[in-house]
Specification:
This protein is of the alpha+beta class. The protein has one domain (about 10-95). About 40% of the residues lie in helices and about 20% in strands. It contains 1 helix and 4 strands, in the order ββαββ. It has one helix at about 45-80, and strands spanning about 25-30, 35-40, 85, 90-95. A two-stranded antiparallel ribbon has the order 1-2. A hairpin with a 5-residue loop joins strand 1 (about 25-30) and strand 2 (about 35-40). The protein is rod-shaped and about 80 Å long.
């Protein structure tokens, strides 16, 4: 596609149609409160923001996985130290050990 106003930043056409610029982006993002928001800007402006959001999302996922892993590990430690398991109805099942 031939963009008639490509890279004419001093007079940005603010669209990516044939008469616009290929760098113009309109993306929908989710805010911290869960609301959808549409950002419209030049790709040169939005790209750093998108990269930072991607890195933050990847780090958050790692932190969440690490938290779950720690929770499971702690649960097994408690289970190993106890001599019975309490069921949701309040009754207890003894743990039989080979040692």
């Amino acid at each position: 596609m031939n963009y008639k106003n490509a890279n004419k930043c001093h007079k940005c056409p603010q669209n990516n149609t044939e008469k616009g610029c290929p760098h113009w982006m309109e993306i929908t993002m989710t805010s911290d409160t869960g609301e959808f928001k549409t950002d419209k800007a030049c790709g040169h402006v939005l790209m750093p923001k998108l990269l930072i959001m991607t890195v933050n999302a990847a780090n958050r996922t790692t932190e969440q996985a690490s938290g779950i892993q720690n929770e499971i590990t702690n649960g097994f430690k408690i289970l190993a130290a106890s001599n019975s398991i309490e069921l949701p109805n309040g009754s207890r099942i003894p743990i039989i050990s080979d040692t």
